[in-house]
Amino acid sequence: MYAAPGFAQQTPSSLPLLFDARERLAKPDLSSLVRLRFLTSVDFPPFNFTDQNGKLAGFNIDLAREICDELEVAAKCQIQALPFADLKEALAASQGDAVIAGLAVTADLRKQFTFTRPYLMLPARFVRNAKAQINGNTAASLSGRQVGVVKATVHEAMLAAFFPAIKAVPFENKEAMLAALKDGKVDAAFADALQLSFWVSSQASAKCCALFDGPYLSEQFLGEGMTIMLRQNDGVLTAALDHALAALSKNGRLQEIYLRYFPYGLF
């Protein structure tokens, strides 16, 4: 688990580097590549969606295009959207070469496919009611206080495991939890940073609340992060994508895409 100290204001934040700056990943020869076909979906904003002009857009779409530019295969690049449920079968049937759609890595999927290194982690965060009298700016100051969480979620399990001194208040859904937080019925809430970031900066929150402490990352509860899925026999292409992701992470272009779609930050 990783926690960044301090009270998180709604300002752009840096994307943590997931690649060691000292590491050099070789760039495989792709001169024989006929085309590079990315498969995605259109139902996962702000990662993949159809914009007002009917074109594919989103964090993953821009990232796929940057990868193609980095690998100098932009002219051979294609991005196709399919229903999310069809992505695995389409990749297995060679209807595409790589899936970039936020598929969670599981043990069963690893038996069928291979994955790049993570390019983005989706942390958990606290969000606090600004009127709550909290003495401190870390999770320790929430000990003994009521903190909302959606029941039967990984965040409920993570809150219990890492913050046992906090009095968890379970809610049936996110909407009920955020309504209780806004009304001051709980002092804080613990949930997915992506959802909390957009809610805090939206009119729905009425400026009641702010992100607090964190971010918190845990592979046990939150998974390995966002990766690109490929067929197991595509070792060369997997290595090429890892090379591109590392380069984009180090030269700042991944950070630029991140701030384009997450202007208030996740971290």
UniProtKB/TrEMBL annotation:
Keywords assigned by UniProt, alphabetized: Signal
Superkingdom of the organism of origin: Bacteria
InterPro entries linked: Solute-binding_3/MltF_N (IPR001638)
Keyword Methyltransferase: no
Subcellular location: Periplasm
UniProt domain Solute-binding protein family 3/N-terminal: residue ranges: 35-265
Matching Pfam families: SBP_bac_3 (PF00497)
Any one cellular-component term (Gene Ontology): periplasmic space
Sequence intervals crossing the membrane: none
PANTHER family, per database record: L-CYSTINE-BINDING PROTEIN TCYJ, MEMBRANE-BOUND LYTIC MUREIN TRANSGLYCOSYLASE F
Protein's name according to its UniProt entry: ABC transporter substrate-binding protein
Organism, as annotated: Rhizobium gallicum bv. gallicum R602sp
Lineage start: Bacteria, Pseudomonadati, Pseudomonadota, Alphaproteobacteria, Hyphomicrobiales
